[in-house]
Write a structure and sequence with these properties.
Layout (H helix, E strand, L loop, with lengths): L6 H31 L17 E8 L7 E3 L4 E2 L2 E2 L4 E8 L4 E7 L6 H15 L6 E5 L5 E2 L6 H5 L10 H20 L2 E11 L3 E3 L1 E3 L5 E3 L10 E9 L4 E8 L12 E2 L2 H14 L3 E5 L5 E3 L15 H15 L9 E11 L14 E5 L2 E13 L3 E5 L3 E2 L1 H10 L4 E5 L8 E2 L10 H4 L8 H25 L16 E4 L4 E3 L4 E3 L4 E3 L6 E8 L3 E10 L8 E6 L2 E6 L10 E10 L2 E9 L11 E9 L2
Parallel strand pairs: 4-15, 6-7, 14-16, 21-23, 22-24
Antiparallel strand pairs: 1-5, 1-9, 2-3, 2-8, 5-6, 9-13, 10-17, 11-12, 13-14, 18-20, 19-20, 20-21, 25-35, 26-29, 27-28, 29-34, 30-33, 30-35, 31-32, 31-34
Helix pairs in contact: 2-4, 5-6, 7-9
């Protein structure tokens, strides 16, 4: 009997489909067993509705300089040595669909433009979108400056007479990139748990005098947030991989007389917890705008009782960790973002590097464009972030009104746009309002309305849409950062074997005659770095691919990702595209082996070349 001409390709496609189908059947059986046994229903976390494997990685990278540096915090001053070393701590989370990177660095503040620069680098290098990259700072006042001053130069220009330290800034940036690259290589199957703790290590630092005016001091009767929000990620065997501890406290146990580099309270506590657990701790500062350590602004570590914070806060984190008795590998991530527009203080200058964060509304009035980030984990954890020093009563109220039982606020994240006080505090004045605040009293309500609306409405609506993706070919235009995302959802499948797999949000079953076509529209000529996100079994890897546009082509071979169920991303080349409407296609290249499948393709990203 004569076999059909495409018999080998059809057989390979069938074998590939059976491989993927077997995996799905196993997942369904496991889910049904857990549900019927009542186990999933009895736990905090319902089973996540996705087919991916939750993986995580953590990397700790030393960023301590070898020579004296200008320190940020207090007056301009140069370091004379090192009390304790400072680090990037980087965690990467991957639920099989979404990959999220969170960095905690022992740095005081950075300009939002520095964050934008790093986000652009990570996008072009790894395909990590800015929404999925958060750079949080511990806010130690005893670490070197990084990058341009940004908004602090507007408030305190006299302390920035010295040039920007481009050498140390480049070092910090390169170490962060290296850490993310290492984390991507080290992803392992993981489980996640969550809990609360409590510590009395902080106090409201805005003391009111008899004249009704505030000065930096201590007031035990004013608003405070002493809750510890803790997330623990374990390896598959149950040993701890990383802890993420969220607590509101200024990194100011040491004052301006201290010239030794130090992570201050966050750094000392992180090192202590790491010593006790054997796992890195990302210290994520909270709404610390009016929160000081109970021992504040001393000239040296001994006078500041710095080591005692290991007991005051470190032991409380360890206790909260012991209370987490349940973890799950059924993890679903969703990252989102909204821009909060609020009035800018009148007659306030604005840095040239931060044009994207303000806009004019006429008559000399301006709005600040305040980016709020959101990360939802399963159905009960919601994390939101702002690039500000938030007053704790604002985050306390949002937490109390949030529909998610574990609602955490991550402060000092993705830059610094000044102090954001509660409306009732403006009448008292003080440093936080008179010197380093770019806002009006309207800002509290603007933030609460936007964040609560997102948590209570937009986030749930977006999640519902995210969980039921469809393949609907549609015209693709650049986003606000001029990035083109050619997703599987918006691509047109062409060929006898290619299929859209909604549970993976990817095209699969690529054989010799299959391809994907996207239609795009550009307003201007632009050069792009092109990245691909894919998965493939090791024994199918190495197949040739081709990406074609009217302006050029990119060819290459599909690299290994580890399995059909684990996606990875990498740059595949560069393209120069012309303005106008056009098509881009992706498919098998020359010398394709018909006995193998090409890959599962989730998306192609075109990031503009700087």
């Amino acid at each position: 009997m004569k076999l059909p001409e495409n018999y080998a390709a059809r057989l390979a496609g069938l074998q590939y489909a059976l491989t993927r189908t077997r995996y799905r059947i196993i997942m369904i059986i496991a889910f049904c067993f857990i549900t019927s046994s009542g186990f999933a229903k009895s736990q905090e976390y319902p089973a996540a509705d996705h087919a991916g494997i939750f993986r995580a990685a953590v990397v700790k990278v030393d960023i301590t300089p070898d020579e004296p540096k200008m320190l940020l915090g207090y007056q301009a001053r140069q370091s004379t040595g090192v009390h304790d070393r400072i680090y990037h701590r980087i965690v990467m989370l991957d639920d099989g669909i979404t990959r999220f990177v969170l960095v905690s660095s022992d740095i005081c503040v950075i300009s939002p433009s520095e964050y934008d620069h790093m986000a652009s680098l990570l996008l072009r290098r790894f395909g990590i979108t800015p929404e999925n990259f958060w750079w949080s700072l511990t806010h130690t006042h005893s670490a070197p400056e990084v990058g341009v001053p940004g908004l602090p130069e507007v408030f305190m220009g006299e302390r920035y007479k010295h040039p920007v330290d481009t050498v140390y800034t480049s070092f910090v940036e390169q170490r962060l990139i290296e850490g993310v690259e290492q984390a991507q290589r080290q992803l392992v199957k993981a489980k996640l748990g969550v809990g609360w703790g409590h510590s009395n290590a902080n106090m409201n630092r805005r003391g009111i005098d008899v004249n009704g005016k505030v000065s930096l001091g201590m007031d035990p009767d004013r608003p405070v947030d002493r809750r510890i929000g803790l997330i623990r990620i374990d390896k598959e065997d149950g040993t701890p991989l990383v802890l993420l501890s969220n607590y509101a406290i200024h990194g100011t146990a040491l004052n301006g007389a201290n010239l030794k580099i130090s992570g201050d309270v966050p750094g000392i506590v992180a090192e202590y917890v790491e010593e006790k657990t054997g796992a890195p701790l990302l210290f994520i500062n909270g709404a610390a705008g009016n929160m000081a350590p109970i021992y504040s602004t001393y000239s040296n570590p001994s006078a500041a009782h710095l080591s005692q914070f290991r007991v005051l806060l470190g032991d409380k984190i360890l206790e909260a960790n012991r209370q987490i008795t349940y973890t799950t590998d059924k993890v679903r991530l969703f990252a989102g973002k909204t821009i909060i527009e609020t009035l800018r203080k009148e007659n306030l200058g604005w840095p040239s590097d931060m044009g994207n964060y303000s806009r004019s509304i006429g008559n000399g009035r301006h709005l600040i464009k305040l980016p709020a980030g959101f990360l939802k984990i399963n159905d009960d954890i919601a994390i939101w972030s702002l690039p500000v020093e938030l007053f704790c009563e604002i985050s306390n109220e949002i937490r109390d009104r949030s529909p998610y039982p574990y609602t955490f606020y991550y402060g000092y994240t993705n830059g610094w746009l000044g102090y954001l006080p509660a409306a009732a505090e403006f009448k008292y004045g003080g440093y936080e309002i008179e010197i380093v605040c770019p806002y009006t009293p309207n800002v509290e309500q603007d933030v609460k309305d936007a964040v609560l609306n997102y948590l209570q409405g937009d986030l749930k609506a977006k999640l519902a849409a995210d969980r039921t993706p469809f393949n609907r070919p549609s015209l693709i235009k650049p986003d606000e950062a001029n990035v083109l995302t050619l997703s599987a959802e918006k691509g047109k499948a062409i060929g006898p074997d290619i299929k859209y797999m909604p549970e993976w949000r990817a095209f699969g079953w690529f054989m010799q005659k299959d391809k994907v076509e996207w239609e795009i529209s550009l307003k201007e000529d632009k050069a792009y770095t092109v990245l691909m996100e894919w998965s493939v079994a090791d024994d199918h890897s190495g197949q040739p691919f081709i990406l074609e546009s009217g302006a050029g082509t990119i060819t290459g071979n599909v690299g290994k990702s580890g399995s059909w169920e684990t996606f990875t991303s990498a740059p595949i080349g560069k393209l120069k595209l012309k303005a106008g409407r056009q098509k881009i296609t992706f498919g098998p290249g020359k010398n394709f082996d018909p006995k193998k499948a090409l890959l599962d393709l989730r998306r192609i990203i075109l990031a503009p070349v700087e």
